[in-house]
Amino acid sequence: MADPVLVPPTPTINQSDTPEQIAATVKNVQAIFDKVSPKIRGTPTPETEPKTRTAASTLPEQAKEPTRTPEQPIEKAPERPEARTIPSFLEKALDVPQVKAETPAHEEEWPEELPAFKSTDEAKQRYKTWRDKYNSLKGELKAASSRPSADPQLQEKLTFLENKNKDMEAQLSRFNVEMHSEFQNRILRPMHESWNEASRIVKESGGDPADLAKALALSGKAQYEALDAIFEGMPESAKIEANEAVRSYRRLDDQRRRALADAPRAAEALRKSDLQRQYQAINKQKEEMQAMWEAAGAKLRDEAKVEVMQRSSDPADRDWNDAIDADEETSRRLFLENTDMEKVAMACRLAPLVDRYRRLWLVERQARLKSDGILKDKFGSEPSLSESGGNTRNGLTSVSEDLKKPFSEVFLREFHKQRSQGVQ
Question: Fewest 10 Å CB contacts: which of 29, 31, 113, 261?
Answer without folding.
Answer: 113
